[in-house]
C-alpha cells in the first residue's frame, strides 16, 4: 500500500448468514503494521483477499472476537496460506481461551497438516478484560463485552500519532466500557438493519442493533467518525443510501457505510 496510508479494508460486511456479501472481516493497516478484525466465515475470505489485490500472508496480527462460525472459520484458509505460501513468521492471534480451544478443536480434524507446521509461529495472546498490548507502535486495549452468548471481546487501537479507533465486537455499545471508547476518532459499530426493519430482521433477540442505535451510540461516545459493519444484505443495493440517511439523523460526524472490498482512510 502507499506509504503513510492508514485504512480499513472491508473483506466482508455481512451478518452471520449473508447471501450477497461475505461475513464481516476488516483489515486495519498502514505501511508498517496491520491487524485482521475477525476472520469471516470460511474459504471465501481468500477470494476477498484476491479481489482486493491483497496478500493474505501479509497479515501480522489477528483478533477473533468470539467463536461464532461467521467470525472464526476463516482461520482455516488463513492457516493454509501461512503454511503453503509463506515462510514462517511470528503472528499474534488475540482471542479468549474459549476461542483458542475452538481453534485447536477445529484443527484436530480439519487441515491439521497445515496447522502443525505453523503452530509454533502463532503466538496466541489469551485475552483478559482490560489487557494492554503494544505491537510496532500500535497500542491495543482489549475489553470483555460481557455478552450473554459466547464469551466476546472488543478493542481499542491507538496509533503512534494518537489517533484512536474503537471496535466494539459483534454487539452494540455497553455501559461498562463506555469510558474506554469515548472520543474515538473512528467508532466501528455493528448495525444489523434499519430501525424500521426490526420486525423483519429481529436484531435485538440476536444481540444486535439498528443503524439508528449505532448512530446514537456514536453521538453518546463523542466519536468523530462512525463506521458500520455486520449488516443484513437483503437490501445491499440500497444500503449506502438508506443506512447513511438514517445514521445522519442521529449522528453529526462523518459516516461510512461500506460494502465488501470498500476502503476507508482515516
TrEMBL record:
Metallo-beta-lactamase domain segment(s): 22-230
SUPFAM superfamilies xrefs: Metallo-hydrolase/oxidoreductase (SSF56281)
GO molecular function, one term: 3'-tRNA processing endoribonuclease activity
Name of the protein described by the UniProt record: Metallo-beta-lactamase domain-containing protein
Amino acid at each position: 500500500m502507499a506509504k503513510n496510508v492508514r485504512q480499513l479494508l472491508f473483506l466482508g460486511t455481512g451478518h452471520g448468514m449473508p447471501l450477497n456479501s461475505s461475513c464481516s472481516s476488516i483489515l486495519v493497516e498502514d505501511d508498517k503494521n496491520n491487524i485482521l478484525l475477525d476472520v469471516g466465515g470460511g474459504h471465501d475470505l481468500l477470494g476477498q483477499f484476491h479481489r482486493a489485490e491483497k496478500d493474505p500472508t501479509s497479515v501480522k496480527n489477528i483478533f477473533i472476537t468470539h467463536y461464532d462460525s461467521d467470525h472464526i472459520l476463516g482461520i482455516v484458509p488463513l492457516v493454509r496460506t501461512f503454511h503453503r505460501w509463506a515462510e514462517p513468521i511470528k503472528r499474534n492471534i488475540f482471542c479468549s481461551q474459549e476461542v483458542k480451544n475452538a481453534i485447536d478443536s477445529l484443527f484436530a480434524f480439519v487441515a491439521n497438516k497445515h496447522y502443525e507446521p505453523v503452530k509454533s509461529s502463532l503466538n496466541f495472546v489469551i485475552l483478559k478484560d482490560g489487557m494492554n498490548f503494544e505491537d510496532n507502535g500500535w497500542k491495543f486495549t482489549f475489553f470483555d463485552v460481557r455478552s450473554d452468548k459466547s464469551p466476546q471481546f472488543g478493542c481499542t487501537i491507538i496509533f503512534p500519532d494518537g489517533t484512536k479507533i474503537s471496535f466494539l465486537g459483534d454487539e452494540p455499545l455497553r455501559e461498562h466500557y463506555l469510558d474506554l471508547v469515548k472520543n474515538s476518532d473512528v467508532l466501528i459499530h455493528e448495525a444489523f438493519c434499519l430501525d424500521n426493519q426490526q420486525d423483519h430482521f429481529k436484531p435485538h433477540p440476536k444481540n444486535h442493533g439498528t443503524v439508528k442505535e449505532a448512530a446514537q451510540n456514536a453521538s453518546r461516545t463523542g466519536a468523530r467518525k462512525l463506521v458500520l459493519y455486520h449488516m443484513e444484505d437483503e437490501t445491499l443495493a440500497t444500503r449506502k443510501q438508506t443506512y447513511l440517511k438514517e445514521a445522519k439523523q442521529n449522528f453529526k460526524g462523518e459516516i461510512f457505510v461500506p460494502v465488501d472490498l470498500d476502503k476507508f482512510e482515516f
